[in-house]
């Protein structure tokens, strides 16, 4: 798979080519991931990309994998110039980073998304960022600060004395508000004379200027309607067995874990349905999410499953498990109120916990035999963040004349032709070119 620095498709162009709803929101991948079959189809093309499904529509959102220095007619949007002031030579490095999706990758992912075997067509769209911010990774700056290697110099811009912790970098400037879609992210370094020489060499190889873009986006968690069929008698019998292991005196966290396991059922080797507590399945749940997809709390697990199988199960069915656990909150409250009595107990750190024992009059509730509960949840959204690295590499500069051109020596040829990934270039500078500076509820 190629990343071609000259053929990236900006988010603005993608947005213009695709029709998306103004109110569309990506789904939180923790509770609502892409369909498993689509992930298989995207396996090769999608490596390194953030891909999210829409909360309602059949849309896949894509965020850039990393950024490179922007270009105009194939020339890098970067400048490195020497400036002399009061007999002292400084350097000023300006770079504009372009965080876009490579054209070849975009087309490959778009084809896989559109060919996904589903009853409704799918489309690909840029991930809408709420806001972005950026930071430069400055060679030797942190090391100098940690070791106390700081000194005072005159700021070339303001003329004021400032303290710096690098013999190369006087200060860095980054645009306070970054791009949302299809814009460039501007940055600047003010360098000492030694720093100008160093960065000229760094830019020529694969250890040039590094830049991290922190991108914020809204992610929705799903709404659904659940129907819960309960056999109170079976539920009580299962709780009996569970409570007996705790001398019929259970902490609130133990009761909560009981219900989490009791609500997840699997078919055993005899064709019977049993909960993860090992008793006959007393809770049957069917729910429909905001896209009309129907699911149940019956899951496949190997016969005589192990703790490792349960961990795999928790990872593979994360969305369904979260929905089931949310659905039974009211059932747990009902059971605690009707069947149990709770007593506060002070812990060592003075926080209050509760112990549960059976109510004396619980029998009248057990005799209800079977009943049905309904639960509806309203979806919401949370702010998520992703970090996208940017690189300025394989650029030849002449600080004296201001000349800038692509450097195509060594592996940089592969970078400019798209054969070599940008991140593969990080440790690939030419020898002698660069001066170095001295568990869970289961």
Parts with pLDDT < 50 across at least 5 consecutive residues = 11-23, 139-149, 427-442
Give the class from helix and strand content and strand pairing.
alpha+beta
Largest sheet at a glance? 8 strands, mixed
When the domains are counted, the total is 2
Relative strand content: 35-45%
Number of helices: 12
Alpha-carbon distance between the two ends: 39 Å
**Global Rg:** 30 Å
Helical percent range?
Answer: 10-25%
What gross morphology would you assign? elongated
Overall pLDDT confidence: 75
Number of strands: 29
Question: How would you sum up this structure, described in words?
Answer:
There is one protein chain. The protein contains twelve helices and 29 strands. The strands form nine sheets. Strands 4, 7, 8, 11, 14, 15, 16 and 27 form an eight-stranded mixed beta sheet that branches. Strands 22-21-17-26 form a four-stranded antiparallel beta sheet. A three-stranded mixed beta sheet has the order 2-3-10. It has 442 residues and is α+β, with helices and mostly antiparallel strands. It folds into two domains: 8-221 and 382-425, no CATH class; 224-378, no CATH class. A hairpin with a 4-residue loop joins strand 21 and strand 22.
